[in-house]
Design brief:
It comes from Anopheles sinensis. One of its GO terms (biological process) is protein O-linked glycosylation via N-acetyl-galactosamine. This is AGAP007604-PA-like protein. By secondary structure, this protein is of the alpha/beta class. The chain has a domain of 274 residues: Spore Coat Polysaccharide Biosynthesis Protein SpsA, Chain A. It is built from 17 helices and 14 strands. The strands form three sheets. A nine-stranded mixed beta sheet has the order 2-1-5-4-3-6-11-8-12, sandwiched between helices. Helix 8 runs parallel beside helix 15. The chain is globular.
């Protein structure tokens, strides 16, 4: 065979071997660019979760006494947090689900400090393992994660947390936003016009269908007791109750309902929660206001008004909400418009306005939390036309469990 033929055979054989090598399943690893990998990790399926993983206790679990096994070493400290999807009880060890909304951090100078105080007080008083669910955006996600990690390590707690992309959440409740925004916003483009201020009304669509109960809490609150005590309130829900909210402690709805109250002077809608004490034989029905009649003392009982509800703390019985045909009818555009027209109601506080209307028109759907579980501190209305009656609304009896620093009021630490 001539030299030229040998060379030709060699070249053909080499090319064939290179083709096999390049297409081999062993060697053909496609490495994603770093930005693509991070993006997929952070936003997979629109719901991203991070957790202190219990299944690998010796390496990734931070126990109640704060110890980590020696064999994990410094590597364990740097790699405690693992991203997993939400999983139901039995794998994540807890069904104490707490939701907060943390978005637009760069546009709110005090939001970071509010979340830090929220987490610090929550973990300080907590007696249970928690699952934190953070609805956030790309610009705020990293900061939220860092704060959670810092406070978990500070208080030596075991906790899980899940991150949700607010845009994906908003898409799942687009019909609710379309129906309610015109009625419960001050003006188009206002602070409360974003879908995130109506998210609680469609939370049952957003979360995993295996999740049965959850509590949505504003991040401007400070805890004074274990969150377990609040979760225990679910056990007091009547069979038809879907949500739990505390009363509004300002005359905001007295103001919103001024026209309706003028035409209905005897209504309790928009009146202070604590009206007056009356003899125990007093037998006026309070069913329309939806209040529990069990607060009867030996000689006096407290007669309660309906000042509206505050959505700083919202208990969500998700399993019941999913099954409730009545609720599905209530959130339809026609029902909402009818309620608003009936009470000459034009609100500006998002989901809080809806709960307030629903709580008066359909009182059997809402469990009335005591004001100590949402002790609001905002005094704006005292200086804006209601100073003479403000204290009758602001009054809250009992030992405070949660302070709510709304209106950027600083809650006591």
């Amino acid at each position: 065979m001539s030299m030229n033929k040998v060379l030709l055979v060699f070249i053909v054989a080499s090319g064939f071997l290179l083709f096999i090598y390049a297409n081999s399943s062993i060697f053909n690893h496609r490495i994603l660019p770093k930005e693509t990998r991070n993006s997929r990790t952070a936003h997979m399926s629109g719901i991203v979760a991070s957790a202190l993983v219990h299944q690998n206790h010796h390496l990734h679990s931070l126990t109640q006494n704060g110890t980590v096994s020696n064999e994990a070493g410094s590597e364990a400290s740097a790699n405690r947090l693992k991203r997993v999807k939400y999983i139901s009880k039995g794998l994540n060890d807890t069904e104490y689900n707490i939701f907060i909304i943390y978005t637009k951090e760069s546009q709110n100078r005090i939001l970071h400090s509010q979340l830090e105080l929220f987490l610090r007080s929550l973990l300080k008083y907590s007696t249970i393992e928690l699952h934190l669910h953070i609805i956030t955006d790309e610009q705020s996600e990293q900061s939220a994660e860092e704060l959670i990690k810092q406070q978990i390590e500070r208080f030596h707690r075991t906790a899980f947390y899940t991150l949700y992309d607010v845009r994906d959440c908003a898409e799942k409740i687009s019909d609710i936003v379309h129906s309610m925004s015109p009625l419960f916003n001050y003006r188009s483009g206002s602070y409360y016009s974003d879908a995130l201020f109506l998210l609680s009304l469609g939370m049952h669509r957003i979360v995993d269908r295996n999740m049965q109960r959850a509590i949505l809490i504003d991040c401007d609150v400070v805890f004074r007791s274990s969150i377990k005590e609040l979760f225990d309130q679910f056990d007091s829900f009547a069979p038809d109750q879907l949500f739990g909210l505390a009363p509004e402690l300002t005359p905001v709805y007295r103001h919103v309902l001024s026209r309706y109250r003028m035409n209905n002077p005897h209504t309790l809608f928009g009146s202070p929660y604590y009206l007056k004490k009356v003899p125990s034989r007093y037998d006026e029905p309070l069913a329309k206001e939806g209040h529990n009649k069990n607060s009867i003392h030996s000689s006096v009982r407290q007669r309660l008004g309906y000042p509206g509800l505050n959505s700083g703390v919202v208990m969500l019985h998700l399993e019941r909400i999913r099954r409730s045909r009545l609720y599905e009818e209530i959130i339809k555009e026609t029902t909402i418009k009818n309620m608003a027209e009936k009470y000459s109601f034009q609100g500006h506080l998002g989901d809080q306005d809806f709960y307030t209307l629903m709580g008066f028109e359909f009182p059997g759907l809402i469990y009335r939390l005591d004001c100590v579980w949402n002790r609001q501190l905002c005094t704006w209305w005292r200086e804006h036309g209601y100073g003479d009656i403000f204290d009758s609304y602001f009054h809250c009896e009992g030992t405070v469990k949660i302070y709510h620093g709304n209106c950027n009021t600083r809650a006591p630490e």
